[in-house]
Structure formats: structure tokens, C-alpha cells
Design goal:
Blueprint: E1 2-8, H1 13-24, E2 30-37, H2 43-50, E3 55-57, H3 66-79, E4 84-87, H4 96-101, E5 106-110, H5 125-134, E6 138-145, E7 155-162, H6 169-193, E8 197-200, E9 203-206
Parallel strand pairs: 1-2, 1-4, 2-3, 4-5
Antiparallel strand pairs: 5-6, 6-7, 8-9
Bound molecules: 5-O-phosphono-beta-D-ribofuranosylamine.
5-O-phosphono-beta-D-ribofuranosylamine binds at residues 8, 10-15, 44, 88-89, 109, 111, 124, 173, 181.
Length: 207
């Protein structure tokens, strides 16, 4: 049974996609053991509570140093003894020590086709604003392993989504969530839970 800790910061629609996929069997052999939010008022915590999943808050501004925050976050994660950590709309930078300790056991959902529109500063609506500014005809979402960099770890799954000429960033974000994020994140978790994901020389092989 794959023990999953999900890190969130906001609405939690990706968390909800995971909860629903575990419930309906699209994710097998898995259990969400803890949801950890970087914000006290994240609606994702309500989603966890409604699903009977233990929630916790580790908020950077509650700590007087980066070291104290990093320790609190690491302890809160390790208490749950997860096999996999899922960043689902999590907007705080993870301590490098955590990425090292959980090499190829932390995944993130990013709302673009990496390596486009990713890296420092590219999160939430900004990603879609830049895609529309560039005039791309396809965008999408990527699930990747988290390494010490920003959106730079081995890519697990991607799914493309059409960009329409009159899209606003909000309309495009919603389409990417519905058609890509909420599908490939659960799919990636199920593949990992069933031992079908290998990382060979920095590249992912799906068996
Ligand atoms: C989404 O745009 C997602 O792509 C990004 O964070 C945003 C909010 O996600 N990772 P959620 O609704 O909190 O899951």
C-alpha cells in the first residue's frame, strides 16, 4: 500500500482529483495519509477533512527562520511516514534536503508542457498568461519528479491541451485542469503505486 502525503496551498482541485481517483479505483494500492498545507485557510484542508484525511498546516511566516520552517515541514511529513510526496498546487519552495532525502519520491503537477513556461516565477495564472502572450496553439500539464531545481526533475507524464484564440488565462487554466492536470496526476500516482515507473539516467520509463 503506497502511503501518500499531499502538499497543498490553495483550492485543492488536484487533491480532490486524487481523493476521487482513490475512491473510484483509478488509483489502486494507495492511501492518502496526510494533507499538509502552507496556508491556514486553504480550501484544500476542507476537502481533506470532508474525506476523513488528517490535515496539517506548516506556514512559513509562523517560523522565525528558514531552518526552523524546513525542520517543521520535514518533521510533519516524516511523521506520516509517506512513500510518496505529491505537490498539488503547493507554492512554497521545498528545502533541498527534502528533495535529496526523497529522491524520485516527490512528484509535482505543473500547468504547462515542461520545458515551456516553467521555472522560477511560473505558477498559477502566470503560466497561462505567458502561454497566451506567446501565442502557442498547444499547452497542457506535466507531472514530474521533484529534484533540487525548479520544475526540472524527470518528466513522468504530459498531456496536451488546445489553446483557443479568445481564451482568457482563467478559461485556459480551467481547461488545462479539467483535461490534463486532474487526469495525469492520478494516472502517475497509480503507475508509481504499481511499480510501473523507472528512472534511468534521468529519464522516466513507464513499464
Ligand atoms: C493549478 O493551476 C495547478 O496547476 C497548480 O496550482 C494551481 C492550483 O491547484 N499546480 P489546486 O486547485 O490547488 O490543486
Amino acid at each position: 500500500m503506497l502511503r501518500i502525503a499531499v502538499l497543498v496551498s490553495g483550492g485543492g482541485t488536484n487533491l480532490q482529483a486524487i481523493i476521487d481517483a482513490v475512491a473510484d479505483g483509478r488509483i489502486t494500492n494507495s492511501k492518502i495519509v496526510r494533507v499538509i498545507s502552507s496556508k491556514k485557510d486553504a480550501y484544500a484542508l476542507k476537502r481533506a477533512q470532508d474525506a476523513g484525511i488528517e490535515g496539517a498546516v506548516v506556514c512559513k511566516k509562523d517560523y522565525d527562520s528558514a531552518e526552523a520552517f524546513n525542520k517543521a515541514l520535514t518533521d510533519t511529513i516524516q511523521e506520516a511516514e509517506p512513500d510518496l510526496i505529491v505537490l498539488a498546487g503547493y507554492l512554497t519552495v521545498l528545502p533541498a534536503s527534502l528533495a535529496e532525502a526523497y529522491e524520485n519520491r516527490i512528484i509535482n503537477i505543473h500547468p504547462s508542457l515542461i520545458p515551456s513556461f516553467c521555472g522560477v516565477g511560473y505558477y498559477g495564472l502566470k503560466v497561462h498568461e505567458e502561454a497566451l502572450k506567446r501565442g502557442v496553439k498547444l499547452t497542457g500539464a506535466t507531472v514530474h519528479f521533484v529534484d533540487a531545481g525548479c520544475d526540472s526533475g524527470p518528466i513522468i507524464l504530459q498531456r496536451a491541451v488546445e489553446v483557443k484564440y479568445d481564451d482568457t488565462p482563467e478559461i485556459l487554466q480551467r481547461r488545462v485542469m479539467e483535461q490534463a492536470e486532474w487526469k495525469i496526476l492520478p494516472e502517475a500516482i497509480d503507475l508509481i503505486a504499481n511499480g510501473r515507473v523507472q528512472v534511468i539516467n534521468g529519464k522516466v520509463r513507464i513499464m
